[in-house]
Each structure stands twice: as C-alpha cells, then as structure tokens.
Design goal:
mainly alpha, Glycerol uptake facilitator protein, 14 helices, 81% helix
Length: 281
Amino acid sequence: MSNNFNTPAEVIDVNIACGVTKANLPLLKMILLGIMAGAFIAIGGATSNVAVHTIADVGIARTLAGAIFPVGLMMIVFVGGELFTGNCMISMALSQKQVTLSKMLRNLVVVYFSNLIGALLTDVLVFYSGQLDYTSGALGAYTIKVALAKVSITPLKGIASGILCNMLVCIAILMAGAAKDVAGKVWAIFFPIWAFVIGGFEHCVANMFYIPAGMLAATNPAYVAKAEELYGITSAQSASITVLQSLRNFIPVTIGNIIGGALVIGMMCILIYKKEYEAKL
C-alpha cells in the first residue's frame, strides 16, 4: 500500500477521532469555524453562478459549475471550518460511544446556524459588490431563477435529493482523509463534489447562499424585469421567494442531508469496519 494513501478502515478510524474533536470544540471556536465554512461554500456557489449564468444547456452549465463549486469544500479542508453536512458523520463516533448524543446535537445545531450566518454575510457582500449586474443584470435574473426553483421543490424530492447530495459530500470528505498529500486531497474532493453539482442534488448549506441571494436579487426591479424577459418569471413569482417559502426547501433538504451523511454513509461505514475499529481499542 502506498505511503500516500490511508486504507478505508484507517479513514474510518480517523473520522471517528475527528468526530470526537468536533463534538468537544469550545462554543466560540465552533461558531467561528461554522461561519467560515458557510462563507466558503457560499463563495463556491457565487463564483460558479457567474460562470454558468449565460449557458442555456443544463448539462453543460452544471458540468462547468461543478468544476468550480468544489473550491468551497477544499478551503474548508485545507484552512479549517465546521460544515453541517460533513459533521453529520459524527454519528460514527456516537455509534462507538466516543461522544454523547447531546454533544453531537449541540455541534450540529450550532454549526448549522453558524453556516447560515456565514452564507448570509456572503450573500450581502455579493449583492452590494455589484456582481449581480453582470451581463446587464442577467446574473441577477439567474439568481432569482435558481432560488425560485429551490423554494418550489416538493418535500419528497428535497429529501431524496438531499440524501444523494450528502452521500457524495461525505464520500468526498472521507476520500480526502484517504490521501496524505495536498494534491491527492484536491482530487479526492473534486470528483464527488463535481458529481453532486452535475446531478443537481440539494445541499442545505449551499442553499443558505442560493435562496437568500435570490431574495436579495428580487428586491432589485432591474433583476426582476430581466428574470421576466429571460425566463418568463413574473414579478409575483419573484416576490414569492420569502423566508417562509424557503422552509419548503430547507426542512426536507436538511432531513435528507442528515440521512445521507449520518445514516447511509456514516452507519454503513461503521457496519463494514466496526470490528477493525473495536480490535484497536
């Protein structure tokens, strides 16, 4: 086995240890790391939107967006950050009685809302930076279109899409743990995240950027008019992107993300590698 590669069982061991560390972080550090992660994911969303907002072909647009969006998770892995979706795998440490349920829930709740703060701060900065003016306001119109599509999702689609998304996000994190060098971690992160964006799957933290960005864009009459011109989105539809409507996305997608990360990936890995882990204790 190459020295640059950890075995799957070793990756699970490391993730369990990381889960213990995450669950026991001091509150202020947890909040700051959560804000940073939310901002990093939002930056990935904002920059990928710029790249694809004039591309009509959905497949090509998602392929290009998926090549840019992984930068968010790369920044978290290399610089630091607490990301709700990845932290769902604290369930591994919980299953091995290395952390308590209360500590896991504390981390997930604090990190979730800290991610939201980071994403919202990025939304405001992007809006006031003038970025949405690109292509005569077409980027602002595209931002409205993306947000409207997300708040219109059905609960079942939100849960199913959320499961698929966080399976890939958590696999990206585990694969990054398999690599021991920076280049290996970059490629390990890149392909699963690229796949999740191409698949159009729903990520609750990314949506903390996309949906509020659409709300802000809908306050600009020029973007609203452009959305109607380009996409046939009426002013009433733009105005329907509200905090209350956003819950139609956030609740099912968050549930799906938890299932995908904590159960499908987290518990599947534990079932496969539990004996190897226990033998080392």
